[in-house]
């Protein structure tokens, strides 16, 4: 009989593949130093050494060698010992008691080191040399995410009987299939495995299956083996696994020598039948549109060394959003993520990090072998999860080649290597993971069709950014239709789509690359319409569930790719709530699209958007508006604000308050002492900085005029030394004169400058770091006819110049007649 404790274990759905009879010790206390910094630190694993420098202002982050050391006790040398590492980025060399014990390449799969022959009674030393230095033989070579170095997942010392389930590729060598017949009425469980049994003792195996909900035994049998485990049995009317009802069974395989249990393997299994074809995805004989998100593993404040509870919360949130599908891009993630997907009911696409490019020349063979080893481990470690259906092995693999513009010979070599590797990985995946679907993600370029690589995997995923990196939102549908027309037999999925959005930014005229949440919503709404209209599109996963670290990026926040539906700290953006309203129709969602509690504007008109999947009532001060259920999860209403506080409320049909919002309205003016006006130039966005300062675009105020052929200039690059990048990432250029009407008074004026890259050189091009002529000219900037000395500035830097202007009725910023000025912003404060 199972004990109550055990049953509870089932109920919580926490059971996993593990040994119940051996001992497992978490090794969390370590000392650590690096090649660069020899100071010894005491740290706990999970750990990464790039937590600071991946986010600081210096370009790049340290990629080198870190040395971890710890000790552990052993008092019985008759047992077998393994060190189990769940993830070390990216190369780990292990030494036990000063002796070399093994090496592992690749940062995203688990591995075991057999320590049995190197241990001593008493204290044992363990040293792990880890490097995340670039290595042309280890994927990924290049990718849009930060390769945080360190032992960033758990490490265990495992003690086992000398006879145990064999360990291979970082997992117990046991493969389980839970299959269904055509009618879904008959299930079959197939088990293949092997046992390390040096003396060839005769052993007993007991296989038992329990209902995961009530712990009730469903099946149990015993048989004898020596070292090969093969078992198959049928089950009538099994409960099915699906995203809607993720019914699981708990399987245990106990190994005994006749007298006692010596090893136990446990795993949750689920019966499901699936198929991907040109009319879509079929689960348990029903069509199912796969909709969900991609997920990276890192998290604000932790890098890639993220506590498990936070990781699991991600999965719960993804499910709560209404997703039935999750792509673990671009690498295998913690094993608990796969377990959570099993119990929550999320279909998984999981892949290895062969991203952006494959090497040519001498490195290719090793790269190819390492990729094959990774896919082998990836499959061995995750095959048994019912949630895992799609297995991938390449993402946008021709991206670098297309952008690097190489000569023809080099291109030929790359294409030939890439095709060879794709063919090998496809073959390997099909062989090792029958009953799964192979998949590959492409970027929107015809090279994948032309080279034939798009015909290798069973399903093709397109990463499409129309309306962001290129084209328009509604270019998506025609692209898909053409692909479908040209390749009617190719099952197609959208593996990525998304745009950057920053909650500090608000726009009334959403545009691509403005990083406004309004544009993010417009884009996702447009995409969903086009996706749902097309049955042949199997599904789609948003890029990305959460913002994630990508050191070289400069979105509105430096070092972060901001395409998340939730921020890096997982606070939701509006589009997250919108997906919830659209995908989770069983629950009522009625709330404001909330983008700024302030309305500093010369016009009191404001367009209010409401995210809803039910009929609702909007109350704005004394006015009321009734709405039917919006077809696409959002409705809007223009309202007229009063100066000061405005109270907005939402009610459902029953009259229950579902959300409220106070908006403070102020006409931008400088009527009172201490009043400020902060103008964000070269843009239509409003920006709320961390210190609560609201920066408004010129269009929000009526008292500014500009002279010159003025235009806007915008970049998305990290401006060093600030997290207020949106102020400095846009400029108004070619200003000959800018006049601000102000009430008579004394003013403090702050002129804000930034300098873009060389190719974008803009006039004021200040001081020492630029050519002298332009520097000279730039010195000739006047405010109310007083010459202003402009501070020197390097590329992608910013600066401000403070000026006091007494007794002014207007502020006139003027350029030398031979030139024009570029300004990123102006802040004005009334002193008298
Ligand atoms: C892609 C890549 C992904 C990037 C994303 C982006 O297509 O697969 O790794 O992060 O685009 O945001 O540019």
Automatic annotation (TrEMBL):
UniProt keyword annotation of Hydrolase present: yes
Glycosyl hydrolases family 2 sugar binding domain residues: 62-157
Keywords noted in UniProt: Glycosidase, Hydrolase
MF GO annotations: hydrolase activity, hydrolyzing O-glycosyl compounds
InterPro entries found in the cross-reference section: Beta-gal/glucu_dom_sf, Galactose-bd-like_sf, GH, GH2_Domain-Containing, Glyco_hydro_2, Glyco_hydro_2_cat, Glyco_hydro_2_N, Ig-like_fold
Name of this chain's protein: Beta-galactosidase
Pfam families: Glyco_hydro_2, Glyco_hydro_2_C, Glyco_hydro_2_N
Domain of life: Bacteria
Any one GO biological process: carbohydrate metabolic process
Similarity comment: family membership: Belongs to the glycosyl hydrolase 2 family.
Domain Glycoside hydrolase family 2 catalytic: residue ranges: 278-583
Glycoside hydrolase family 2 immunoglobulin-like beta-sandwich domain ranges (all copies): 173-272
